[in-house]
Structures are given as C-alpha cells and as structure tokens.
Write a structure and sequence with these properties.
Blueprint lengths: L1 H23 L5 H14 L11 E4 L2 H5 L3 H15 L11 E17 L2 E15 L5 E12 L5 E3 L6 E4 L4
Antiparallel strand pairs: 1-2, 2-3, 3-4, 4-5, 4-6
Helix pairs in contact: 1-2
C-alpha cells in the first residue's frame, strides 16, 4: 500500500512537472522551483529516487568558476538568509559561530536535462560550548532558484554541527 501511494504521488509530480516544463520551456520562476522541490521531496526527501522529475548533478570547479558575479552574489545572500534562523535553532543547542560562510558544494537541480535551480551546501566555523569550545563547523543545505529570486533551506537536511576531526 505504501509503495503504491508513493507511485501515485510520483506520477502526479511527474505530470505536474511535465505541465510546468511544457508551459514554461523549463524556465521556472522562483516560486515554481520552490513548489516543485517541495512536492518532489515529499516523495523523495534526498532527491535521489528513481523515476522522479528532479535529479541532482554536482557542479565541477570549472563550472562554479564560470558563475557570473550576479549569481555569486545571490549565493552569498542566500547563505545569510538561510542562516538567519540559526540563533533560534542550532545555536540554542550550545553552539556558537562566527557567521563567516564558506561554500562547500553546489549541485544543479536538473529537470528535463536542464538546470532549473541549485542545491548548495555551506558552512561556518563553529564551537561546541558544551564540550569546552570544541571546534567544528555548522553545515547547512539550501536551494536557490535559477532566476536567483528565491532561496530556501533544504528541509530534508537541516543545519548540523560537525566536530573537527581529531588528529
């Protein structure tokens, strides 16, 4: 029963996705992108299931280096926007951070063989106040629409503290 329900949901997502793609030429607005990611993640939280409309493809360093200044600025703004909630979430768990963000990975969100947005991972240096200021990083995952108008956290992979490996 559960697998049949997932199949029905995926089929509905696929039909909706094809309608959006057909109507927009695979150029999604920020709102359409966010809605599509949220719907797809309900059936496949990590966007790695077979027969789903969206797939993730890691961008190479060469592709990342070719991103224009406007896109780079949008990623910088998105990191800040997404991390704005940290004081009310992860930092309440006894962690502290300097809020100096580092981009760790950028993936293209692909629909019909075209990148329609980005999933990215970023982090900031942090300390575990509960463990005598043990160093580490807070890592967060988020999405950015291709038109750079909408950014939102990846609800399937929320912020977490990763302790620094000891030697």
């Amino acid at each position: 029963m559960k697998n049949a329900l997932k199949t029905i949901i995926l089929a509905a997502i696929t039909i909706t996705t094809l309608q959006v793609a057909a109507n927009t030429g695979v150029k999604l607005t920020g709102a359409q992108f966010e809605k599509l990611v949220n719907r797809t993640q309900k059936a496949c939280p990590l966007l790695n299931c077979k027969n789903q409309p969206l797939t993730l493809v890691a961008l190479t360093q060469a592709q990342i280096s070719r991103l224009d200044a406007q896109t780079r600025a949008a990623f910088t703004k998105a990191m800040s926007n997404v991390a704005d909630i940290w004081p009310d979430t992860i930092l309440e768990g006894g962690f502290d951070t300097n809020f100096k963000f580092r981009m760790d990975q950028i993936q293209g969100v692909v629909l019909a063989n075209q990148i329609v947005g980005y999933r990215f991972t970023f982090s900031a240096e942090a300390w575990d106040e509960n463990e005598n200021k043990a160093p580490g990083r807070i890592t967060e995952h988020a999405f950015l629409s291709q038109d750079l108008s909408v950014d939102f956290r990846d609800e399937a992979a929320l912020a977490e503290f990763l302790p620094q490996a000891t030697k």
